[in-house]
Amino acid sequence: FMGSWFIPCVGASTVEPSAKIPTRERAARTRSIWLRKDKAPDRTATAVFGDVWFSSRTIRADNTR
Q1: How many other C-beta atoms are found inside a 10 Å radius of the C-beta of residue 48?
Q2: 45 has which bridge partners?
Q3: Cys-Cys link to 57, which of 19, 34, 36, 44 (CB 3.0-4.6 A)?
Q4: Does a structural domain hold residue 29?
Q5: CA nearest 43: which of 26, 59, 60?
């Protein structure tokens, strides 16, 4: 994979109060994405937006949680 970054769009949407916007360092540590309905954000959360959150935890192909 290649690196990616969260690009804010001013005025495109309203960020909810519970959102966690990552720093450059946190974004670089992101290794997985989760649906909030499947798993609540934990201490590994690098970013939280709406129904999804990003984690610094690496998951294996055979790991579903």
Answers
A1: 20
A2: 55
A3: 44
A4: yes
A5: 26
Number of domains in the chain: 1
* CB contact set of 30 (below 8 Å; sequence gap of 6+): 22, 46, 47, 54, 55, 56
- Residue 12 is predicted with a pLDDT of 59
> Helices in 2-60 by DSSP H: which ranges?
24-29
CB neighbourhood size of 6 (10 A): 14
d(CA 26, CA 63): 23
- Confidence band, pLDDT 50/70/90 cuts, at residue 57: very high
CA-closest candidate to residue 46, choices 62, 59, 34, 38: 34
Task: Identify the domain containing residue 30 by its residue range.
Answer: 24-55
